[in-house]
Design a protein that fits this description.
Blueprint: H1 2-10, E1 13-14, H2 15-22, H3 26-39, E2 42-47, E3 57-61, E4 67-73, E5 77-84, E6 94-97, H4 105-120, E7 127-134, E8 138-139, E9 144-145, H5 156-164, E10 168-172, H6 173-184, E11 193-198, E12 202-208, E13 211-212, H7 244-247, H8 249-261, H9 267-272, H10 281-289, H11 293-317, E14 321-325, H12 333-346, H13 349-352, E15 356-359, H14 365-381
Parallel strand pairs: 4-7, 7-10, 11-14, 14-15
Antiparallel strand pairs: 1-3, 2-3, 4-5, 5-6, 8-9, 11-12, 12-13
Helix pairs in contact: 1-14, 2-3, 4-5, 6-14, 8-11, 10-11, 11-12
Length: about 400
């Protein structure tokens, strides 16, 4: 399986390269490759460049040997798609309404899988595993989401594997976005990077020394729930003054509603008319880009609060890169400049000069891509799907 894992990570390799990477003799590697070719799992893709002798034969995964179902669950909806072992998405992403406390998650996932199978025309038996990313404190080994309110519903792995009749791996959504960025996005070739999903919460994926960092029990990255305001607003976690209450999408909406109710003049007034409850992050960003002073001011204020939190992370982790993802990152310069300004104010110069802050190019695709990578790497590493090694 190490041969499959290295081919997955590197796409194309010669038998000699595989021998060096796996520390297995060349004759043994060639024998394994012959078996995998007979199974239809590996194929000869072409020949590599010559280094003075005969040009080496290059091997790679076949497109249709393995498929996995990747699901990313958000606060109000989920996205799902099927990927093959070449990281190709076989159809457009399907969305369905759900949340982490949804008691009908199994049924909705089953129906979504059936729809995807119908759209792609592949056999269900070819889908060898499902990967799920979701918000919350995740025990990866047991597949339990400790954030789910009803303790009887917390074992997502058991619930979905019983329904889907296949192995299921559960992970935190921010970590999967970080993995997606690490393999396909801005974080490629970096060793120490922070990936922030700036949405209703502040999901943080941490890459340390080139590896996704989980912490001692899978709880690393709870950036949202750092207390920054004594006796502040009540957070959904049950505590007061969390960073999420002042620097998230929800905080932005609440600030906008308060200013509009107080009589502030803005394009937002006509945009939402008499329904301020329908105000959205996209609407505020759109108005900011049209020059609306209130919208620009709100994004500036929110970004400085986030920058305050990020400055703490920079001092602690000394990252080379921070990647911003999520709806609020789409404000581009309207959030980047005030964040950088705040970091300049609060961080030591020798530390802040080392870090870049960039907007994700993968956007909404980073999470699903990360899930696909996580599942395939685990499958090719260990058939038992022991996720401790992810």
């Amino acid at each position: 399986m190490q041969v499959l894992l290295h081919l997955y990570k590197n796409t194309l390799l010669s038998a000699s390269s595989l021998s060096k990477k796996t520390h297995v003799s060349l004759p043994t590697v060639r024998s394994v490759l012959d078996e995998l070719i007979q199974e239809g799992t590996v194929k000869i893709v072409g020949v590599g460049a010559s280094k003075g002798g005969r040009r080496p034969i290059l091997y790679g995964h076949t497109e249709h040997a393995y498929y996995i179902l990747a699901i990313e669950i958000g606060h109000y909806k989920a996205k799902a798609s099927i990927f093959n072992s070449l990281n190709s998405e076989l159809s457009s992403t399907i969305e369905f309404k759900t949340n982490i406390d949804d008691t009908e998650l199994e049924t909705k996932t089953e129906e979504t899988l059936k729809t995807l199978i119908k759209k792609t025309g592949i056999s269900r038996e070819k889908i060898i595993a499902t990967g799920v990313s979701m918000p919350g404190i995740i025990d990866v080994k047991s597949g339990i989401n400790k954030t789910i309110k009803n303790s009887q519903d917390q074992n997502i792995k058991a619930r979905l594997s019983a329904q889907l009749k296949m192995p299921v791996i559960i992970e935190n959504d921010a970590r999967m976005q970080a993995l997606g960025e690490c393999v396909f996005g801005k974080a490629q070739n970096t060793k120490n990077t922070l990936v922030l999903n700036w949405n209703w919460g502040l999901g943080l994926g941490i890459i340390l020394n080139g590896q996704i960092y989980h912490g001692s029990n899978g709880s690393a990255g709870e950036f949202s729930h750092i207390r920054v305001v004594p006796n502040g607003k009540l957070c959904e976690c049950g505590k007061q003054g969390c960073l999420q209450t002042i620097a998230s999408a929800r905080a932005l909406i609440e600030m906008a509603q308060e200013r509009l109710a107080a009589g502030a003049i803005s394009h937002l007034t006509t945009l939402v008319a008499n329904a301020p409850s329908q105000l959205t992050v996209d609407a505020i960003i759109t108005c900011a880009k049209k020059g609306d002073e209130l919208s620009i001011s709100l994004l500036n204020e929110l970004s400085k609060k986030l920058g305050w939190g990020l400055s703490t992370l920079i001092q602690l982790y000394n990252p080379e890169l921070i990647v911003l993802n999520g709806p609020l990152s789409q404000a581009q310069q309207y959030v980047l400049f005030p964040i950088q300004q705040t970091i300049n104010q609060y961080c030591l110069e020798s530390i802040q000069n080392n870090v870049r802050i960039e907007i994700s190019e993968l956007g909404e695709k980073s999470g699903l891509k990360g899930v696909a990578v996580m599942v395939f790497q685990q499958i090719f590493r260990d058939k038992s799907l022991d996720t401790n090694s992810i």
